[in-house]
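Re: that chain you flagged

S.,

Sorry for the slow reply, it's been a week of failed gels. I finally had a moment to sit down with the sequence you sent. For the record, here it is as I used it:
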Amino acid sequence: YEEWIAFRVYAIVRDATLTVNEFCKWASIGRTKLYAEMNAGRLMAKKFGSRTLIPRAEAQKWMEQLPTRH
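Prediction finished late last night. Pasting the structure tokens below so you have them in one place:
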């Protein structure tokens, strides 16, 4: 039962977040730029064990605050 609960928690976290690689692919940026954005406070990430995860809501907020190019 505990394994099932752990799996469900992981599944919920997994559906609500992007990994570093997934975010970079989604945003079309490299890892260096991603970490620069996080260090500058423009993008919030969470740690889950040793993994860095970006909540999808934070990813969307980050994308929306980028300047519009005309």
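What I noticed first: DSSP finds four helices and three strands in the chain.

Talk soon,
D.
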